[in-house]
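Reagents: none. Just compute today. DNA replication regulator family.
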Amino acid sequence: MQDFAQWSLDVIREDGASLSWLEEQRFDWTNPLSLALEQILNGKTIILITDEKRKWLETYILSSINAMNLDRPLLPIVSMDSLYQHYKHVSGGEMIDVVEDMISLSYKDDYFFWYIGKGDDKRADIAKRKDNSYFWIFDEEFHNGFTLKSYDPIIDIKLLQLYKLFDASLNATIFGEVDVGS
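Predicted 3D structure written out:
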C-alpha cells in the first residue's frame, strides 16, 4: 500500500499545471483529508454544510459522490439543510445545541461535518464545535481544515479540482491503494 502523501503528490503532478498550485500545500491538504477518509471508511455519515455562496458546490457534491456510474459502495452523505431546512436561520449556541442533539440521536454519533465556506459564516458554527469535522475553509486557519482564499479569482475552479482530488483519494482509499494512516 502506498503512502497517502506520496500518492497525493503523484496525482497532483500527473494532473499537470492545473493542480500545480496545490503541490506546495499538499500536506495542508492530506492531513485533514486523511482524518475525513478514515471516518468514511469507518462508516460515518457525512453531513455536508456550505455557506450560501458555495451552495452550487454542495449540489454538485451530493449529485456526484454517489453517481450511478461509480464502481464503489454508496456513501452515506446528507446536507445539513435536508436534515433541518431551517438551519440557515439558526443562531446562538442554545439552538445549535438543539440541532446537534437531533443529529446525535439520529446518527448515534457516527457522523462528521464537512464544511465548505467562509470561516466567519454562522453556518460553520456547528461544525466548528466538533473536533472531527472536516473543513475547506476560507480566509482563516482551522483544525482539520484546508485553507483557501475567498477572493481568489479562480476559486470555483480550484474547488472543483479539490473535489476531483477528494473523489480520487476516496477511491484509492476504499480500494486499498493507499494507507491514509501514513
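The mean pLDDT is 92.
Action item: order primers for follow-up constructs.
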